[in-house]
Amino acid sequence: MAQVTEQQIIDALKEVQDPDRGADVVSLGMIGGIIIKDGNVGFAIEVDAERGQQLEPLRKQAEKIVAELPGVLSVSAVLTADRASSDAAAGGSPGAAAGGSPGGSPGPARQQTGPQRDASMGPPGVKHIVAIASGKGGVGKSTTAVNIALGLVAKGLRVGMLDADIYGPSQPRLLGIKGKLETSDSDTMEPLESNGLKVMSIGFLVPEDTPMIWRGPMVTSALQQMLREIEWGELDIMVVDMPPGTGDAQLTMAQQVPLAGAVIVSTPQDIALLDARKGLNMFRKVDVPVLGFIENMSYYVCPKCGDRADIFGHGGAKTEAEKLETEFLGEIPLDIAIRETSDQGRPIVISQPDSVHAAAYMEIANRIWEKLTVDSETSTRSAPKIVVQ
């Protein structure tokens, strides 16, 4: 099957007319962020913020036209409010339409508008959604997230994994998934599956070495579609591999998704704990329960001599959890087996299920599930409004 080209997509989209502006979306410069991988196509349609809801038919029309091109297997178009609104044009800042400053950063003392959201705003059929987060990159959050998810699968639960790290998706490599996304009868996409875990990642649409040069509103729209326009089916729990930090993706998940809780991953050293503390405080400010801390790369044991070394220090996350009055969920060592199995696309929970490291992940997964099912208030909370200050 011939690969569809970017020019063919652009030519097809010239048939889509903006009903208010009397011209096609291409000539109006509304199309951006086109990505193509193995017949799967994604692109953004930039619109004024106030017209977002009324242009949903335009988005669907654009998807349908591109889907009819030879060689296209699936299409995902997102509406983004990256253009200045009419208020901004009258003198406001260019970022106002996106809810903040240019590039998607939230503006000072600005309340995010919109209705109070409840559990129905999450993916239908998903009972609990848990975010695995970190205050900074490089602490092994994605490896931790996937092993926890697979630990939950091993309990016999129905589990989904959403890779919300748009700029650095890791789950396709960690799970060794190289399949193609398929479109269901209802025009939504089916998640891919690995070892009983349903997975969705922007990495299924973009080559590994392709940078995602998307602004905040585009990231937000992509996350919304990966959550709500994927046929997740009935899930006991969805694990969300969050990007590091406290930016657009985290705010989107907190504002628009009924998160049952968040888990903070950190290494033991002071600089990592400082950022982890910021992550915890962010979730608390937006009323997302923090289920606990995990200390990753907690210690190292030499495989030859058996000597132990606390390369990054030890116990810092446990001490921090006590200071912040949250639970310490467990520690994971720095070990070559965890690294090798992750690089091979066979996380240690499934490739070495009887190992002490797999047992550590399983214990953490069990504790997370206990906290979700025991605390009925946590499991039924509504997504809050956000005031960014």
Write the layout of secondary structure elements.
Blueprint: H1 6-13, E1 17-18, E2 23-24, E3 31-37, E4 40-46, H2 56-67, E5 74-80, H3 86-89, E6 100-101, E7 105-106, E8 110-111, E9 126-133, H4 141-154, E10 159-163, H5 171-174, E11 182-183, E12 189-190, E13 192-194, E14 197-201, H6 216-228, E15 235-241, H7 248-256, E16 261-266, H8 270-285, E17 290-295, E18 300-301, E19 308-309, H9 316-323, E20 328-331, H10 336-343, H11 348-351, H12 356-374, H13 376-379, E21 387-388
Helix pairs in contact: 4-12, 6-7
Shape: elongated
User: In terms of structural class, how would the helical and strand content be classed?
Assistant: alpha/beta
Cα-to-Cα separation, first versus last residue: 52 Å
Number of helices: 13
Task: Please give the order of strands in the largest beta sheet.
Answer: 13-14-10-15-9-16-17-20
Strand content: 15-25%
Largest sheet: 8 strands, mixed
